[in-house]
Every structure is written in C-alpha cells, then in structure tokens.
Amino acid sequence: MHPPPSAAAMDFSQNSLFGYTEDLQELTIIERPVRRSLKTPEEIERLTVDEDLGDIERAVYLLSAGQDIQGTSVIANLPFLMRQNPAETLRRVLPKVREVLHVAGVEMQLTAAVSFLTILHEESVSIHTYAHSFLQIILLHLEHRDAGVSNAWLETLLSVIEVLPKETLRHEILNPLVSKAQLSQTVQSRLVSCKILGKLTNKFDAHTIKREILPLVKSLCQDVEYEVRSCMCRQLENIAQGIGTDLTKSVVLPELIELSRDEGCSVRLAAFETLVNLLDIFDTDDRSQTILPLVKSFCEKSFKADESILISLSFHLGKLCHGLYGIFTPDQHLRFLEFYKKLCTLGLQQENGHNENQIPPQILEQEKKYTSVRKNCAYNLPAMIVFVDPKNFQLELYSTFFCLCHDPEVPVRYTIAICFYEVSKLLNSGVYLIHKELITLLQDESLEVLDALIDHLPEILELMSTGGESSIQENKLPSLPDLIPALTAAEQRAAASLKWRTHEKLLQKYACLPHIISSDQIYYRFLQRMFTIMMTNKVLPVQKAASRTLCIFLRYNRKQEQRLEVIQKLIEQLGQGKSYWNRLRFLDTCEFIIELFSKSFFCKYFFLPAIELTHDPVANVRMKLCYLLPKVKSTLKIPEDKHLLQQLEMCVRKLLCQEKDKDVLAIVKRTVLELDRMEMSMDAEQLEKEKQQEGRPVNEKTFEKKRRDIKTPTALPKSIPIAVPGPSSSTPSASKEIKKSKLIRSQSINNQAFHAKYGNLDKCASKTSTAAYTPSASGLAKTSMISLTDDSFRTRNATSLPPSFSPNTPLPSTSRGTGNSVDPKSSGGKDLPPRKATLKSRKSNP
After folding, report:
1. Where is there biased composition of kind Polar residues (predicted)?
2. Structurally, how many domains does the chain consist of?
C-alpha cells in the first residue's frame, strides 16, 4: 500500500490556491505571443495561390505580388525551374528576380547567390547563356552593404571566373576592375578587387598579366588601408604561381620584402605566411640572402608581438625549417631548434594551480593562445625530427616529445596522438624510445586522445614488435610488459563511456593482436572479454566488432583445446542461449566464421547448430537465418557434404510448410529461389577416388561431364524421400548420385510453377504425412514418404536454460569424410541426439 499524501501535498488553503492562480496567469502570458503569431484570415488569403497555375506562372505571380518569404522560396527553387524549362525561366522568371533583388533583404540575397552557383554547377545552360543572363546580376551585388551578402556573391563570381572564356573575362571583369581598384573607390570595392585579381592571373598569358594585372597588384600592395595591403599580400601566392619564376623574383619578391616590414601586424603576418608558401619557387641564393634574414628577424620579434604571430609562426615552423634545410649554419640550426623547444613549453611556466574563476579573462584568453601554439608544435614534431635527423632524436627532441605527451591540455595531447604513427615510422629502429609514451597515451583520461591514437594502433604496435624493421620477430613485444594492461584498461574506459564509436573502433583494431602478442596472452586476457561484450553490451555495432575480433583470435589460436573450448562456448552460450539477442549474435558470428575460416571448418563445427535455428521460437532469429542460408550452402561440397545438403533442404522445406509468420515466410520463399540458382562446388579428388573404387578408369570426357552435372543448380523439391546416409563404404557411387539428383531436379520448385503455388505450400503445416510421387527410371511411381523423427531439429523450449559449459562435453561436429553424419559418437551432444528415421506406410485413399 502507498503511504497517504503529506499535509503539504493536500494544502488547499487560500494562499496555496492563489499561488496556483498566479502560475496559470504566467502560462497564459507565455501563450499570448503564440496566439498573436497566428495568421489572420486576411493574411491567409494573401498567401493563397491558385492551385491550377503552372510552375512558371506561380513563380512570376509570387515574385510580383507575393510576400518576401514566398519570393525567397521561388529563388531557392530557381535551379529546379532551370532544369524543367530553362527557356521560359530565363525569359519570364529571371527578369522578375532581377527586379526583386534590388530591394531584397539579406536572406533573399544569400539564397539568390547560392541558387546562381547551383545553376552554374548543374550546367543547366551553356556558359555563354549563363554569362549573358546571370553575370551582370552577380557583379551588381558584389558591393552590397552587408559583408555576408557581399562575400556570398564574391564566392559565386570566383567560381564563375573558372569557366568563363577569356574574352568575356576581359570585357566584363578585367576592364571594369581598373576603375574599381582605384583609391577613390570604397575599401570594400578594393578588397573585392584584390580577390578577383588573385583568381584572374591563372586565366591570362604572362604578357597580359605583366601589362594589365601587375600594375593593379602593385597599387593595391601600397594601398593606404592595411586591410587592403594584407588582402592583396595573401593573393600574391596565386599570382606567383600564374606568372612564373622570373616575374615572381622581379615583381612579387620585392613587394613581399616591403610588406614584411609593414607597420601593420596583420600585413607582416600575411607576408611571412606567403613567403613560407613560396619557398619552393625561390633558388638557394634567394633563400639564403633574402628570405632567411627576414625569417630570423620575424622570429626574434615574435615574442614581443601579438600572440597571433606566435600561433602562425608555430604552425608554419616545420615547413619553414624543411624549406630552408641545407642553408642553415650550425649556429642557425641550433637557434631554430631552441626556438621550437621554447614554443613547445610556452605558457607552462605560468601554471600555478589557481581556479579558473580566479584568473582574469585576459589571462585565460592568453593561455588559450599559448595552448594553440603548443598544439601547432605537436603538429610539426615529425618535421622537426627530420630537421634534427632521427638518429639525434633521443638527445635533441625526446624531452620535448615527453612534454607534449604529458601536456595538461587535451588538444595538445590529441595532436601528438595523431602524429604518433609518423614519429614511430621516422624513428624506425629507435622506436623503442617512445614505448612509455605509447602506454601514457593509451592510459590518457581523455577518450579523444585514445580515439586519435587507435586510428593507426595496428601499425604502431607492428613497428614496436619488429623494432622498426620489416622482418617479423618471434618474440612478440617482450620488452613492453605494460602494453596488455594498458590495452585492457583503454577498452574498459571506452566501454564505460557513451562514445560507443570509439569502443567499436578499438575492438576492431584489437584484431591485430595475434601478430603482436602470444595466443596464450590473448586467450587469458582478451578472449573472455570479447564474450562478455557480445553477451552484455547493448550497442549492436560494438557487439559485431567484438564478434569479428573473437573470430580472428580463434583463427590464429593453434592450441586445439583452447579452440574447442571457444567453439563450444559460442554454440552453448550464444547459439543455444536463452536470450534471442544472443542467438542473433551467434548468426553474426557464423557469418564471420564463413568469411575468415575454411568451408570444412564451418561445416564441421557450426553447420548443424546454425540450421537448427530454423526452429527458433523467435521470428527475428528465423528471419536472420534465412538471409544467411545462401552463405551456409556455399560452404558445402558435393559429393562429400551431400548429407548436410539433405538436412539443409529438409530444414528449408519445414520452414515452407510450417512457418506462421508472414514476413519470415516471404523471406523463405525468396531464399528458396536464391538457393535454387546457386551452383554447388565439387570435390574433384573425392569424385576421382570413387571412380577408381568402382574399378573404372578415369576418362577425361566422362569426368568433365559429371563435373558439369554436379555443378548444375540443385533445387529443393516439394516432396523428396529423405534417406539417412550410412557409412561411407555403403555410399552409392557418384554416377548413381548424379542420376538421382537429375531425376529429383526434374521436380524442382521452379519447374512446377513455384510462384503460383505459394498458397498450397502454406497448407503443408497441417499434414503430418502424405503420399508423394517420386520419379524413378521407369516413370512416376507412388511411394510412401519417409517420416522423420529428428530431435536435433525439434523446436526448443523458449524457457529452458542453456546447458552449462563443460570443456569435456563433446562438440556437435560434422566431420567431413564420414558418410554417417548422425552417429551419436561423432556428432552427438545433449542438443544433437542421433536422428531416427522410421518408414511409415499408409494406404492411399481410393
């Protein structure tokens, strides 16, 4: 019984009711704006459009008399109209769009810029037509007062420049650009001109660039506004690539040198980054006599300048050292290396353990910039290892690498985890130096760091295990005892988090462990964990990843006792588990077994437990098995596995006759047709042995003919006498089996109009035995059908518990080479008793 409510809960006093009234009034006030936002009948009438209007007529009407939201919708739909009726759209709709854009708001302008770009990419009209119809509208709105709108139109124009012919570019863009780049124009107009010039240099020849474009470039590089100088400086890289080496050295380099001494910090930064990106163009003399002094001066002044300079410098330092490598003196080499080390620890000396709430905001902002600097240093570590030579890593850079791996900020450790594989490759035989740092990052408290590290974990562990050499060593990681605890702790940490994708990725990467550590270590430290994940984890991709990795562990385990134990646990705890979810995962495991193992292995251990699930009480399990049956059948070889083929056919026939779920039955019918079309693989050696046992010489023509007969698609007849195969000595010869299969095939489902008789198949469930006509050599003879009493395929009680695991319990195996598949000694277990076949004769009704 529930306790009576407290007095406070039953307080109906005046004060309490008054409080409830105030709450209701507040709710009413909250709802009022919602009610006011509803459209009035007059507004709805204005927004209503005649449904009989066509697309073009509706677009013209909405652009002429509609509201802004309707006009925006029409412009967004402009690419569709161009695909459907380009001529009418250009003739009637586009002029209206041009009129509306003159007074349009920001949203409509942005929508128009995107639609124009989409039409260009879709190539709805020719380039000539596009330039004639759309280019002037784009140019007209380049200098819109809103910066976002202006940039949107500029991006569209830059894409259009890529495809326009030279003459159109010259007359429509380059000639007007001369006046737009003048000092008398607005700053925004000159900024747009800078970006257009950077794009145009790749479209004209060197003579035109030198005569018409470079004078404008020089003028903008000397503009009175630092924003314009900075913008033009960043376009010099594109211009240099378009004009060649000679003009770059004579025109671009002097401008860069002058801009690198500019009073504006952003201009100097743009000049530095452009110089670094153009290092490959300049020769050794230019690098040593001109660029190197500029870079030295820039680095020396960087600590006194704004932190944004340090962020850019730390990002480009690796590329800079690589580009200037070979012209450094030993002193300069050491100076740049020390400068890099100083950047790697920038801001760490100020750590004082104070609460972030007590630190002034400007100090917090500065620390964020310092974190960005150290992050960039971690990004450039591989380049700096090349700079000092990997042989000198331990002496020159190991302490720096250690600091980056233990940095207090996650972005820094995340970046060094991404670079860890590159560092390992560069160190080669010296990779043992960073073993401890690998363990540190595997044990990192941040899952982001772990996720970055495991992207290349198999390659890293392989380098660790081989000492950086390509030859494979037998002693797998003997010098790294902390690896296994670190790997298991990383998996448990990922499993305890909500980031299941990281967990899934980690389990997938664990598939490399058989090449890294011994099978005993995998068996005792990882294998049982895979079982636990498969049976208890709630995320399906994680379960499948664990299942596949477990199969790989099993594949490389060479100890028969351990393999049999794993197989038996798979069958008992998954295939015969109480939870249908476990039985579904068993079928996933069977699919991985078929993919990773030999056909004979699957048939020996997993064929019978798999097809036993045709009688599972849960429809989803039966449905999943039906999808798997074609792969199951592909593992069989004839004549060696003909007894397994008969049992497969019997199970499918029972599904056809007894299945009650309509969805499963539909899948069964489709599966039957797919099985019927499949070709059976043939064991040529076994067929040759049988021929030799019959005392007949092997004739190539006869052999080829019978091989073709056996590879003929096998069908599932509606009624076939099921015979329990006896010992291999009493097995009929291959020629007799082929004749029987031919006669049986004549009554296949396809030949008896299978699709037209699905309704009759559904009635089979109520029949326990029936008379069947079986083809024989002399014609059709009425025979008695064999009634099977097969406990191994009996429907399992859903409430029964799975049998307890015992390593000594024999496995339900189906060994190839023995004709009797139902011998209790060879295939028997508690769940697979011997098959009993009894022949029940019934007189046919007159």
Report:
1. 793-824
2. 2
